Each structure stands twice: as structure tokens, then as C-alpha cells.
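Appendix B. Chain record.
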Amino acid sequence: MPKVGMPSIRKPQLVNATMTVIERVGLHAASIALISREAGVSTGIINHYFGGKHGLLEETMRAILREHSETVMQLLSAIPKHQHQKRIHAIVEANFSDFQASNKVAKTWLAFWSYSMHDSQLHRLQRVNEKRLLSHLTIELKALLPHQQVKQVAQGIAALIDGLWLRGAMNQEGINAQQARALIGDYLELQLAQHALTTR
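C-alpha cells predicted for this chain:
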């Protein structure tokens, strides 16, 4: 976490510089020197406020997660609460927004996932994000499916989001957000259709 007192204008500047450098050279080569040069600040500022590269990566991921959460809530706020299927589509859409699907954010996500497997603090951030996604999906699916199916379908949608996102992030052409949303939409439609058949 950045120390209190850091000028608020510096945080997004450093976060953006971190993502830009990770996109360009990868996480391991993304040194404090390169990041500070990209941001136009001294290395001392990064070390003082973030304690080094690890702290800066953590703050960068927090910024990405905040933006993601805000996008989810913004999209959901525009859809009536009884339109559960549309709200699920909005949750999916937020995961493939222009920002989240951009190359520099995608590569930062990949670096974060890799780091989080061996770092308790970053792992906690990843778990919070995962639980938030499943919670949003579960709330909407409860109105559409019987209790015993809700968790399975929520996990299925989450797995498709992660899988399609990961495959796209590792593809030179990048993430195909439109295709990802269509595939996940097809899965949801299939699950709802199967439930409708069993209740006839």
C-alpha cells in the first residue's frame, strides 16, 4: 500500500507507467529504474511511497481491481434488479471492457496471477476478486435456477471468463471481447434452456 501523503496525481501516473513497462519488457525486466523513467519521477519516490517494485505492483493491481469493480457497479446500476439475465450479461461485459481487455492491463493481470501464487498479499487480492465475481453471479442466478444449480453455473461462467480471458491475453491478436461475451452468453442460454425443459 502506498504511504499516506503521496500526491494523488502521482498514483495513476505511476500505475500507468508500471503497466506500460510490464507490457513492453515483462514483469521480471520491469525495474524500478525503467518505471520511474517512464513516469518521469525519481526512483526514490517509488521506494519511499511503495517500498519498491512489489509494493508498486500491488498498488497497480488494486487500481485495476477498483476500476473493474466500478465498471461492474456502473453497468448493473443501469439495469433493473428484476432483469437478472441482462445483469449477468453486464457482469460478463465488465470483465471484457475496453480497459480490462487492453494489452497492457492484460499483461499486468498475467504478471499478477503468476506472482499471486507465491505471495500471500497478492493471493488475497486475487481471492477477493474471485469471490466478488462469484457473489455477483450467484445473486442473479438464484432468481433463474434452482439452488443446487446456482453454484455450478456461477463457477462455469467464472471459469469461462478466466479461460477466454487468459487465452486471449496470450494471443498476439489480443482478447476478442465480442466473441468471449457471445460464448459465455451461449453457455448461460443453454443452462437456462435445460432448466426450463426439466420443469415442464
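Further analysis of this model is presented in Appendix C.
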